[in-house]
Amino acid sequence: MDTVLFNFHDLVLILTAFECLLFALLLSVTNQKRVLSTAFFVGFLICHIFIPLHELTFWGKQFRIWLLDISPNLFFLGSYAYFIDGPLLYLFVRSLLYKDFKLRRIHLFHALPVVLYFVHMLVSFYLQSYERREMLVETQHIAYSAPYLYFDAAGRFMRVIYALLCLRLAFAYAEQLKNVFANLNKRDLAWLKVMLVSFLGLFLWDSALLSLKLYGFAIDDFDLDLLNIVGLSGYYLTFFMLNLLIGLKFTLFTSVAAINESSHPPVAHESLPTEDKTYVESIKETMVKTKIYTQPDITIDQLAATLKLPTKRLSQILKQDFHANFYEFINSYRIEDAKQQLSDLAYADKTITEIYYEVGFNSKSVFNTFFKRKEGCTPSQYRSKNTNQNATAEDKSSLIP
Question: Which candidate, 43, 159, 331, 394, has a CA 20 to 30 Å from the CA of 270?
């Protein structure tokens, strides 16, 4: 990857580092409430300042010469970021989605790989003689030596694992939302999933590069041309991902509705206290009398407060007695209300849009999907069928003397 000073590849690396720096500064200045997820995100961006600078100074011939004139100890400082950005991305996603997330001692285990890498570099590089360190950097032999190659590969593969863990968190969160909210369309996390899938692709690309190096090491024949192509392509993928990230941050990051990490479906085998059985009829009565389900943004906490029940106990009752999560429970009442209006001739002048808004839905597509899944037909088909039957019944009754 030796290149002439400030060729286009170098420029992409410099722009990547510069954009990350500006973005990190902007987020730091605007993070007046000291939001933990923003702090992790800033840390993630700082890592992506050091990563391109590491690539630039180690693989760029002129930059390597300049830095060697200062000190060989300055090399590899950016390489630590490969062991840090994955954990920071994971902690960012987790603290973004869960409002009760707190840093605990167990999270220190995320730092173990970078500590082991530092110990390796201390023995194999920093404690070596000055001439030895200078030779390892100048010839780039260290990049193809067994210990460094194994650690480098471990760092890249670890990033893939963290990206997969982040995706798992995002999908689990989407399911947990159904235990908290009745309307989910405003809480769509498609943007986060797109971002994480993109990072997963980038991390897989980097892992492919290290896999090629490991293969070359195994057969004692490195394909430098192929490594050069894959490595340079990674620079451009990173630059593209950064700009996608900036766009998503300033358009959609604020749409996240953070929930408690404990907002999960109750364990199936948990038994209800006998007194909870008495609440079932109370819940049914409250739903019919108050029509609380017509509130578009109703949450399980609000319903629990109305029923004077702990939220966890209400969630258990819904799961075991109604066989539904909160999302399904509330929307089933909305559908029943909508069915009554669609089949009643007294509501014939109401449009379907007016009806689904009135019963609590705020999305036509969600209403239609939920209705069809429950009734096997669209709302308009249901209305046509049932109003015709009611009209026929009325006509017949009018003929009776």
Answer: 331
Q: Which CATH number fits domain 274-399: 3.40.50.970, 3.20.20.30, 1.10.10.60, 3.40.50.300?
A: 1.10.10.60
Which residues are registered as beta bridge partners of 98? 259
Question: What would the pLDDT profile of 265-276 be if each residue is shown by its tens digit?
Answer: 545 445 545 555
> Is the Cβ–Cβ distance between 167 and 201 less than 8 Å?
no
Buried b (16+ CB within 10 A) or exposed e, 293-305: bbeeebbbeebbe
So what CATH class is 8-255?
Answer: mainly alpha
pTM (2 decimals)? 0.84
Q: Comparing C-alpha atoms, which of 340, 354, 353 is closest to residue 383?
A: 340
Reported as a single tens digit per residue, the pLDDT across 342-374 is 988 888 888 999 999 999 998 888 899 889 998
- Binned at pLDDT 50, 70 and 90, residue 182 comes out as confident
* CA–CA separation, 71 and 380 (whole Å): 76
CA gap 43, 40 in Å, rounded: 5
Can you give the three-state secondary structure of 266-302, one letter per residue? Answer: CCCCCCCCHHHHHHHHHHHHHHHHHCHHHCCCCEHHH
379: nearest Cα among 340, 324, 331, 346:
340
The whole-angstrom separation of Cα 192 and Cα 372 is 29
DSSP 334-381: HHHHHHHHHH-GGGTTS-HHHHHHHTT---HHHHHHHHHHHHSS-HHH
pLDDT at 203 over 90: yes
| Alpha carbon distance 286, 12 (integer Å) | 62
Neighbours of 74 (CB within 10 A): 12
What are φ and ψ of residue 183, in 5° steps? -115, 130
In this structure, the dihedral spanned by the alpha carbons of residues 276, 305, 338 and 288, taken in order and rounded to 10 degrees, is 60
Q: What pLDDT is recorded for position 163?
A: 96
Confidence check: pLDDT of 264 > 80:
no
Q: Residue type at 28? A: S
Residue ranges of alpha helices (H) inside 60-145 are 61-70, 85-97, 112-121, 130-139
Show the tokens assigned to 224.
């430098």
